[in-house]
Amino acid sequence: MRPRVKIYLALFLFSWSCQSDKLPVSDQPNIVIIFTDDQGYGDLGSYGATGFTTPHLDKMAAKGMRFTHFYAAQAVCSASRAGLLTGCYPNRIGITGALSPQATHGLSDEELTIAEMLKTEGYATGIFGKWHLGHHKQFLPLQHGFDEYLGIPYSNDMWPVHYGGAPVTDTTHRKSKHPPLPLIQDNETIERITTMEQQDQLTVRYTEKAIDFIERNQSGPFFLYVPHTMAHVPLGVSERFKGKSEQGLYGDVIMEIDWSVGQIIETLETLNLSDNTLVIFISDNGPWLNFGNHAGSTAGLREGKGTTFEGGQRVPCIMKWPAKITPGTICNRLASALDIMPTIATITGTSLPEHKIDGVSILPLLSGEKNADPRETFYYYYGRNNLQAIRYRHWKMTFPHISRSYRQVLPANDGLQGPYSRDTVSIALYDLRRDPGETYDIQELYPEVVEEIQAIAREAREDLGDHLLGITGKNRRQPGFLTEDINE
Predict the structure, then answer these.
(1) Distance CA 460, CA 472 (A)
(2) 424-450 pLDDT tens trace
(3) Hey, which end of the chain has fewer CB within 10 Å, N or C?
(4) Can you list the positions of beta strands (E) in 152-286?
């Protein structure tokens, strides 16, 4: 029997045996996760955005909870998504970086996703947007618990077109190996995206599918996952929002995403589903800063996408659930996308997988429990399996590594990519309460904190490893490897 089948059977039997202790299916909350791409911490009105407006997301924050210390699982596309859907540090499950169209691996079928977990409770499950956890059929969403899918299988820049819009003609260029961008419905490619005019329609198409899914499954419960292609470069936006912001195309794109959120929430309200629906809005990592005016804002946090500094991994997060969350609350506690899966499991009374995960339930935070602090530590891994920093309460320690950097170089503009610089990072200690920009090292003032975090680091390295020190780790699992015909 395949491991996944065993998990399904075990979860079904447990679910069946405990039905008397659970809410009736009709009372189970609906779950909606909206996941944007490369949107910075400062790219919402409620987080200080300027040059464009986000009225629907600001209203969502006013009616829900806004997090100020919320972290993506990792500061890059595939890894971030793996962490969200499985509750695991992505390096634990073998997913690193951003999988390319040439990748022959993906999310293992031995991992349990939020969708698979909720299927055991009778949830309808749909995803409309960017997947990026393996583009071959065996890795696609329908093989990981989703009933239906429409979207692209990886990032929208993974096609044979330069960032400036010209087709790639140089056969030695890395993009020349990419096929046209596939738009997949369920398990089949239904369209090849070859122009920016087609990309301009993606946000609208995902939104229309999301609304249709809600309407068809309004008797509930349902899990809707909308991982937007935007605001990853190249930026695409429909005519309705093109030229609408003071900031330019990036602002237009965020305004359209805000519209999309508004359409989803309006549909929930029209169908009287809003009170019993948990809506979560998050970004997958920080902004890609060397794209200049086509990149977002970190609101003063250091660095951006692809780094383990705060600008790369601290992201905006808003949650609304009228049945549980007090309107207009701000959560300053540490939380992560890793925590979404176990939180949903607690809410729905669903069993988590037997294998180790890294998330914790943050339901006490959503419920407003005084002094609740479910997460004290967070590991900043990047690259092959490099432990680059650890957060412990309000402290953050960095470890020696070479980092991508956006400092000391100028970005490009209008869709062109500027250079990176390199930063040789040393051991340093920061107090993120007073220094969110990570500008001054205070390890000499707090040697006892340094010792505490070094002890946490030893535990992390024993568990997950650290390529920087040549440590493998005891509890890492393999990704899924391609078993089907590679040409399928």
Answers:
(1) 11
(2) 999 999 999 999 999 999 999 999 999
(3) N
(4) 181-185, 188-193, 222-227, 277-283
Q: Is 467 a catalytic residue?
A: no
Residue 132 annotated in active site: yes
pLDDT digits (tens, 9 = 90+) for 96-131: 999 999 999 999 999 999 999 999 999 999 999 999
Report how far residue 269's alpha carbon sits from residue 478's, in angstroms, rounded to the nearest whole number.
42
Please write the tens of the pLDDT for every residue from 459-485. 999 999 999 999 999 999 999 999 965
d(CA 18, CA 350): 10
Rounded Cα distance between 474 and 488, Å, is 35
Three-class DSSP labels, 283-309: ECCCCCHHHHHHCCCCCCCCCCCCCCC
Q: Find, among 103, 110, 101, the residue nearest to 189 by Cα.
A: 101
Select from 317, 310, 307, 367 the least CA-distant residue to 337. Answer: 317
Write the DSSP symbol of residue 486: T
Handedness of CA 79, 84, 86, 92 (dihedral sign): positive
Which CATH class for the 379-475 domain? alpha beta
Count of CB atoms situated within 10 Å of the CB of 5: 10
483 Rama class: left (phi>0) / alpha (psi -120 to 50) / beta: alpha
Segment 187-210, tens digit of pLDDT:
999 999 999 999 999 999 999 999
CA end-to-end distance (rounded Å), the chain: 25
Which residue of the set 56, 69, 77, 144 is catalytic? 77
For the chain, which ranges sit under pLDDT 50?
1-2, 5-21, 23, 486-488
CATH code 1.25.40.10 for 3-375: no
Alpha helices in 226-292 (DSSP H): 249-270
Please tell me which residue in 56, 69, 88, 132 is annotated as part of the active site.
Answer: 132
Comparing CA positions, the residue from 353, 385, 398, 361 lying closest to residue 474 is 385
Return the pLDDT at 26.
60
Secondary structure element (H or E) that encloses residue 390, with its range: strand 386-392
Any idea where the domains of the chain sit in the sequence? 3-375, 379-475
Cβ-based neighbours of 2, under 8 Å, separated by 6 or more: 109
Cβ-based neighbour number of residue 232 at 10 Å: 25
